[in-house]
From TrEMBL:
<dbReference type="InterPro" id="IPR019831">
    <property type="entry name" value="Mn/Fe_SOD_N"/>
</dbReference>
<dbReference type="GO" id="GO:0030145">
    <property type="term" value="F:manganese ion binding"/>
</dbReference>
<dbReference type="InterPro" id="IPR036324">
    <property type="entry name" value="Mn/Fe_SOD_N_sf"/>
</dbReference>
<dbReference type="InterPro" id="IPR050265">
    <property type="entry name" value="Fe/Mn_Superoxide_Dismutase"/>
</dbReference>
<comment type="function">
    <text>Destroys superoxide anion radicals which are normally produced within the cells and which are toxic to biological systems.</text>
</comment>
<dbReference type="GO" id="GO:0005759">
    <property type="term" value="C:mitochondrial matrix"/>
</dbReference>
<dbReference type="InterPro" id="IPR019833">
    <property type="entry name" value="Mn/Fe_SOD_BS"/>
</dbReference>
<comment type="function">
    <text>Destroys radicals which are normally produced within the cells and which are toxic to biological systems.</text>
</comment>
<keyword id="KW-0479">Metal-binding</keyword>
<feature type="binding site">
    <location>
        <position position="50"/>
    </location>
    <ligand>
        <name>Mn(2+)</name>
    </ligand>
</feature>
<feature type="domain" description="Manganese/iron superoxide dismutase N-terminal">
    <location>
        <begin position="25"/>
        <end position="105"/>
    </location>
</feature>
<feature type="binding site">
    <location>
        <position position="98"/>
    </location>
    <ligand>
        <name>Mn(2+)</name>
    </ligand>
</feature>
<keyword id="KW-0560">Oxidoreductase</keyword>
<dbReference type="InterPro" id="IPR019832">
    <property type="entry name" value="Mn/Fe_SOD_C"/>
</dbReference>
<keyword id="KW-0464">Manganese</keyword>
<feature type="domain" description="Manganese/iron superoxide dismutase C-terminal">
    <location>
        <begin position="117"/>
        <end position="216"/>
    </location>
</feature>
<comment type="subunit">
    <text>Homotetramer.</text>
</comment>
Amino acid sequence: MALRSLVSRKTLGVGLKLQFRGLQTFTLPDLPYDYGALEPAISGEIMQLHHQKHHQTYITNYNKSLEQLHHAMEKGDSSAVVKLQSAIKFNGGGHVNHSIFWKNLTPVQEGGGEPPHGNLGWAIDEDFGSLDSLIKKMSTEGAAVQGSGWVWLGLDKESKKLVVETTENQDPLVTKGPLVPLLGVDVWEHAYYLQYKNVRPDYLKNIWKVMNWKYAGEVYDKESS
Ligand SMILES: [Fe+2]
């Protein structure tokens, strides 16, 4: 196993440090695999750019917005506080969503694409008929997202049912209700354009080959009990 992977496993999920004046800032979480480990489904070039540039930019701008929010609140400047909400939602959502997305994927040799077992497998059969039906539904709905956004498999905390939802831009799944994200697929062009050009359906066909259903199953077990 590459040194990077070993280091990553220890640091993934931290992504946050406390600054001396009490303001929280967020940092880029390492990937739990090498950039090229998802090939040929997703190229190493895409993964590196997506992680190092796109995700990092969301974090940088999120931290900047939070600092501005802190100052606006200190000054009691309500209009500045309100003005910052869209930047916080967009960049904070980008950080939240991508942090989930990296964990939703895993190399084939580490179980990528292996169908879900256990409770999640049963729940998928019950709520969607079969795994193939679910994948088809998510791929179709993901392809139909206008502009940029995400398609999600979520757990409704109230009904305990699985749901497929889409969100626009960087809206996290929580903006759609009491939903816990099990899987999120990024359908922004930056997630596939370098490899798949404008053919989003091809990207959505191949991403299932590196899907980490084991991770989704663990979240499901934790959240559905
Ligand atoms: Fe992205």
